[in-house]
Amino acid sequence: MNLIKKSAAKAPKPAAEPPVHEQVYQKLRGQILFGEMAPGQAVTIQGLTDSLGAGMTPVREAIRRLISDGALVFQGNRRVSVPVLSAADVEQLIFVRQALESELTRRAARHVTPGLIAELEAIDSALDSAIAAGDVSGYLQQNYNFHTALYARAQAPVMLDLSDRMWLRFGPSLRVVCGRFGTQNLPDRHKELLDALRIGDIEAAAGAMAEDVVQGMQMVDAVLEERSVQV
Amino acid sequence: MNLIKKSAAKAPKPAAEPPVHEQVYQKLRGQILFGEMAPGQAVTIQGLTDSLGAGMTPVREAIRRLISDGALVFQGNRRVSVPVLSAADVEQLIFVRQALESELTRRAARHVTPGLIAELEAIDSALDSAIAAGDVSGYLQQNYNFHTALYARAQAPVMLDLSDRMWLRFGPSLRVVCGRFGTQNLPDRHKELLDALRIGDIEAAAGAMAEDVVQGMQMVDAVLEERSVQV
DNA sequence: CAGCAAAAAATTTGATCATATTCTGTCCCT
DNA sequence: AGGGACAGAATATGATCAAATTTTTTGCTG
């Protein structure tokens, strides 16, 4: 229909840019997910207007969205910061992620294609490279990509949205885990998951994902315990 | 500490008011949850600045939060509207709500007190009154209160947040259900739930809630089907 | 001559910014 | 140590610019 714009001779923008508040949101989201922000770190509007070169209205909107996502917390007075997880939070994250992500895996496994398996293999090998290189940010990003690429096949936008929300909550803490244990010692169940997908064993795939989730969250819990004792 | 403000002779505000964007958010949230907005209805910023008497910045922030909540949808162009649920959405809502709310019930049931039971009984009787009076908005509100009062005892803020999010999604559609079937024909499992709580049968309580959830969502699905056939 | 269609203007709405006001936290002075 | 002033940051408003929808006008065809 009218998906193709007029695109007259004037146009220097063949691809209409997303609005600034969306760009700011995506940028902050990436920083939170991939470990560029530490738990407890304060977030100020003016700091972001400077570092991102945007006005304050778009920054305000992005921060509101992230607060609603649980990716940032509003601290009663007018301060905003990156959340520090409590033991109770982690316990709930384990329950929800296990229920949600094993079901997403189950649904994605029903629509599995050779293309998907190849895509996941590529991501997993990129992930291994990042581990070998000690690239924490790259590791976090590829790990997220692995899960996201799989879940995208589940045809379940509502559940996908909830899952993303959970990732935003523990993203910053995952960075701390890497800093503490190193990327070398972060086991996952991606290989088992891929094996299960290849032979079409849906329940095995869901089980592998559940184990992957629990394992990851237990690492977070361990670091958390260490911190709370230290403090 | 300094909870008591100076409160000099001037002060007409003994209780510090919440910021405007918060007030706007709560107001819109109530309108969406309790059926004052129809699925598909368009939401404009300028319309809200007029009807709520607020500036556009607070309204914008409230809308962003609600979009992040899934209570409103951004329609690609710059339009925002109340979401219309698809059959796939309802199916996912059933799965998620069943898993989440039965677990919340389980956790709340472990900390059950006579005070909680009395509170729930009071809400349920107010709910019955609203049904008898044909007060749709009151019915929706009391129904929400019933679930919320119970879940508040679960000591699970993360899961509570997700649950609230789900309610925001189907709130407008629930209103349509009432309009179609009337409040008289909306069965719930509150009585069974209260019985289970009284005798301390945690699993029975969780089961009753799961049935309550499925029943409610099936009503939404039925109306949805009717609509899609009609169109 | 009437009706449809396409194009252009006008209105409505959203996005962004700059500015003023209010509040919180801190530091200094008594 | 307690109270008050100062500084920094957040909230909120209004104005301005850009985009999209709607309406109007114009031209063409049956």
TrEMBL record, chains A, B:
Domain of life from the UniProt record: Bacteria
The name this protein goes by in its record: GntR family transcriptional regulator
Pfam family, one: FCD
Location of region: Disordered: 1-20
Record keywords, A-Z: DNA-binding, Transcription, Transcription regulation
Start and end residues of each HTH gntR-type domain: 18-85
GO molecular function: DNA binding; DNA-binding transcription factor activity
Transmembrane segments: none
Low complexity bias spans: 1-14
